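re: that complex we talked abt at group meeting.

here r the seqs, copy pasted straight from the sheet so there may be weird spacing, ignore it
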Amino acid sequence: QKEVEQNSGPLSVPEGAIASLNCTYSDRGSQSFFWYRQYSGKSPELIMSIYSNGDKEDGRFTAQLNKASQYVSLLIRDSQPSDSATYLCAVTPPNDYKLSFGAGTTVTVRA
Amino acid sequence: DTAVSQTPKYLVTQMGNDKSIKCEQNLGHDTMYWYKQDSKKFLKIMFSYNNKELIINETVPNRFSPKSPDKAHLNLHINSLELGDSAVYFCASSQAHYERGEQFFGPGTRLTVL
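got the structure back, here u go
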């Protein structure tokens, strides 16, 4: 079982719609969760972090965490063409120095 | 000011050659990482150093050898390059290993082995 799993997509949404990205993780003891955005040909950049159950909002982005279900999601409201990118879910497994990444979900926002 | 820089940006070489990629960060971070991103875009950790000490050494061929001369630099040397080594290699840094979720990535080095 992969440590972090995401729907690979691609996810195509119309401009102005909500894009919903999902991520599940295997290690129940994981404590910290992150979303990175990677534009084509560029490097990943951190856009959201979440540590507690519930929702965390930052501008048009909302991260949601449910540790009981081992599930973390990212909502992008009012999607813009500039949101077209691959979104990587990342988790810090316990007793480990690494950051485990999912394979990424590619989002395309069509005008 | 560039936070995490890598050289070269592109590297095209023949099978069997030896090559190095250099990484430098000016953020004052303690921890640095090397990742490999293949054609399917999966980002795989290879190595990590914390204050010049190796703390992550994932299962990679021993043809890959990292070196950290100081905490601002982490280099990657690859011996006897193979076709399967073709990928984008990213260097990253974080304030400390316990803040490994918040990493800053370099621009990447696209390695093509012919």
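couple things i noticed - Chain B has no helices and eleven strands. Chain B has a mean pLDDT of 94.
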